[in-house]
Prior knowledge:
With about 230 residues, the chain is mainly α. It is built from eleven helices and no strands.
Amino acid sequence: EAAKIQGFVWEDDNTLALDENTYLVLALRYKELASGGEENGGGEEDVPFDIDGHLTEIDTGKIDADYMNSRFDKYLKILSSGADAIEIQNTVNALHQSFASLSQEQQKYADIFLRDVQRGDVTPEQGKTFRDYISEYQSHAKNAQVRQLLEVFALDEGKFNALLNANITAANINEFGRFDALKNTVDKAKAKHYFEQRDGESLSIFKVNMKIDTLFQDFIIKGGFDLEPLK
């Protein structure tokens, strides 16, 4: 932003070490660092350095999806044309190069979608963009994560969804006692069983309650993640 104030514009003909698309991709990576990055099931890691607040406000949504969609369309044509494995793989590699404009989570679901297409499990629909499919896969995955949490802990679905769909931060999560009210709906016997199986040790109710608090808070603030597998 400081450079723009001084008259910098991307449209200038001067040669730069990076272009606007690369700059926006790097900004997206920094925004992920600021927000905690990839979901990890509730672990916490401090970012080892401060990230300029102005950088986290950059509109990385400006990254043009047309390039990625054109490569996806080319991949579909190659796949349906009976091309050999080498040509198909080259097209896949070219499509992967456009993934830099996606978040890490979006890249994960993009890969899952492509594997489904290659196996013939999914038939692409006319008019749907590559990002449409990624969003669809993300949505299905998030719904599955929520269903899993509700089932494991026998939570009140209404109270949980109200928190999940609100603009929740660590500072406001328990406004009006709403987080405490949610935790009070937990089936403590089921929670104790889950954490003891996951951690491989016997736990007191006090420790179970602490783990409930940490897990639920992380899940709600991060928007969901897969629960850690049981041992």
